[in-house]
Amino acid sequence: MPTITRDQVRVPVDVSPEMRNAYIDNYMKATRESGRLMLFACDQKVEHLNKDFYGEGIDIADAEPEHLFKIAKEGVIGVMAGQRGLIAQYAADYPDINYLVKMNSKTNLVKTDQEDPYSPQLYSLDAVLAMRDAGVNIVGLGYTIYLGSEYEATMMAEAGELIAQAHAEGLLVVLWIYPRGKAVTAEKDPDLIAGAAGVALCLGADFVKVNPPKPQGDDDRTPAEALKIASMAAGRTGLVCAGGSTVDAETFLTQLYDQIHVGGACGNATGRNLHQRSLDEAVRLTKAISSITLADYSVSEAMEVFNGQKSFSL
Fold first, then answer.
1. Which residues pair with 144 in a beta bridge?
2. What pLDDT does residue 244 have?
3. Residue 104's closest CA among 132, 81, 88?
């Protein structure tokens, strides 16, 4: 099982000296003392509206937003990412969850052929710090950049300033970076995914969430092999992959294992593959995912965890 000590946490120099211990505390909590990130992404209620939470193939429990918090409480995760208001409504009943506040979001109603995507910051850092000071267990912030959009400069500037301010307060930052817009013809092009990872590093992010690359044409690399270049480009910014649409557990766990052990990823960012399932199944899958991400289990061992044949806890 990979573990790190507090002395092994690389603290960026833009973390203010008086908040250095707070940053280390947050890093250790978010990574469950492993250096790897198991991020439960719960920001889709804005990003994808209700289509991801109710409909064919989705467990009826997902129609109720508290389902997200029950999964996070009963399962094994590192952080739960969601908008400030969502967290504010439920955090008092779920105080032990490590929260990551998603600072910007947009719906999917306006398509790229209508206008290039722009996701502005929705609230100030002061509003988030006020929640933290009131006792909410906030360990970090998240922000989405659409690289290649005509608005990318604005989003990069917002993200860069946010990272500087967050680090000064001892908070982690995870950037979601997706190449998207009229200038982008292949959103999952391996070179673009690697470029996105490098942008996250240059902005100072602690982690970056990207889509798994999709090699095309004469590129005979597997997605995990192509991901390795992006992981290298990310440098000391930890790279994790978006989980995407719901697939069967073994397929998902195999992809995750390859992303980490072939592609050099340092964790995962999973949303729909968890919350669209029943509470029992979702909790078991968090444990199976975490057994790979945080404890280096094999796929077969993780499937035993998922099927209830093997226990896993931290």
1. 176
2. 86
3. 81
